[in-house]
Amino acid sequence: MSETNQKLEDMRLKAVQGGGHRRIESQHKKGKLTARERIDILVDEGSFEEWDMFVEHRAVDFGMNNKKILGDGVVTGVGKVNGRTVFIFSQDFTVFGGSLSESHAKKILKVMEKAVQVGAPIIGLNDSGGARIQEGVASLGGYADVFYQNVLASGVVPQISMIMGPCAGGAVYSPAMTDFIFMVKDTSYMYVTGPDVVKTVTHENVTHEELGGAITHSSKSGVADCVFDNDIDSLIQLRKLLSFLPLNNKSSPPSFDSIDPNDRIETSLDTLIPDNSNKPYDMKELILKVIDEEDFFEIGQNYAKNIIIGFARVGGESVGIIANQPMVLAGCLDIESSVKAARFVRFCDCFNIPLVTFVDVPGFMPGTEQEYGGIIKHGAKLLFAYAEATVPKITIITRKAYGGAYDVMSSKHIKGDLNYAWPSAEIAVMGAKGAVEIIFREDLDNPEKIQKRTKEYEDNFANPYKAASLGFIDDIIFPKDTRKYIFNGLKLLKTKNISGVWKKHSNIPL
Ligand code: HXC
Fold first, then answer.
1. SS3 state of residue 468
2. pTM (2 d.p.)
3. What integer pLDDT is reported at residue 170 of this predicted model?
4. Rounded to the nearest 5 degrees, what angle is found at the Cα of 330, between the Cα atoms of 325 and 334?
5. Where are the alpha helices (DSSP H) in 187-282?
6. Is the residue at 113 inside a domain?
7. CA distance 426 to 136
């Protein structure tokens, strides 16, 4: 090998050692992979091309001029996932704890900018102690530059954040502005400030896990969309998520051949709805029975379980599923479920993914907790998101569609394209009992009269025929045929094209 080539070889070898053998070992001991090992699992074999391997920080204070490590704590570049281009940055905790310096930020910005120009997703594998403390405000500036680029990229290319270690301070805000946040169980944390500062300021004693662990964020705060068991599982799941998404906002998601017949009749759905309309059933059963090969990529599985969201395919085409879950809080819409679903609807609309909505909703959750928390504004987010969405919207009402929640859940009135109801649907202002107790208050002490009135109300409204007679429902279908109707609808709506009035942007009730 020539001297010049040997020098390159040596430099590369040095760069891949990151923070050195001891720190790599320590990373492995914690059950974590290194930045480069993670990329190797994420991308198709041999497809990763690394950029800026020789970048170093420029800090001089606190003896930093003598502490330079090639790459400066982040591995960046471009690779392929299932043959499709993705831009990646993967923070290297073995180098200054993956903390973000000005140079580190510039490396991230370079791949983000190129991703937007080329039109390919940005994947961030985050493992960082936040702002590089030795660099002070230069590091804060670096973060702000990344945040700004997150905003520019939002709605242009999918941005996905995988949290794979401690992420503190600025390290959590860039992920917070991306489309999805995934976390790894036991080894990842996200918080604005760690337990020590919390103790000083609020006198709370809290562990890293309680404050910002994967379970906390996936079940309490809703910050994390999915949680996986370890680095390898997370990266494999990330590859899977990408298979449902287009590369950018001007392209369509990839379609796949499915062995599942498009007109598959699912007779068991005809008996899914219990006779007693107050009895729950599992909406997931319906989802799994109508999608291709029962393959459902659920988002937010442990948070706001009264609504189910996630990606699936019907006839090989990606769809975003939104479904009330009667098993949890009777499928009511509350603050958390409204926000969870609204954000998902907006993501799908940004990226040309049709929406399939299954409705069984008794209304918005009543009570002071909800009102004080702002259910009016948060519920409006979902209404706004559905109304704004221009992707194909197919809605199936399985049972209850009561009150405002009927309007919200992709109804005809907010431009649902195809709205179907099962024969078991009840489309009304509210349940018969509640309605009668209000409009026939004077008969409350006469159970016989009340029973008669309730029956009258049920006959009139606790069915889909009134709504169908008004044209609010396009058809009443047998449950067993649901998959066929969704497949045909998606095919029909593939060329849907509507344009709105010009505006700078809307003002969704944040
Ligand atoms: C420089 C850092 C660093 C940082 C960690 N290191 N965080 N170096 N700047 N922010 C270095 C450590 O000095 C150490 O170097 C190595 O990374 C590993 O750190 P450890 O503490 O040994 O690891 P661990 O015990 O696993 O703890 C990880 C940690 C902890 C929880 C992330 O290091 C920590 O609390 N760091 C500080 C977090 C923080 O407060 N960041 C600033 C947030 S303010 P050696 O040489 O020993 O390997 C912020 C503002 C931005 O980000 C706001 C923008 C909106």
1. helix
2. 0.95
3. 83
4. 80
5. 195-202, 208-212, 214-215, 231-243
6. yes
7. 60
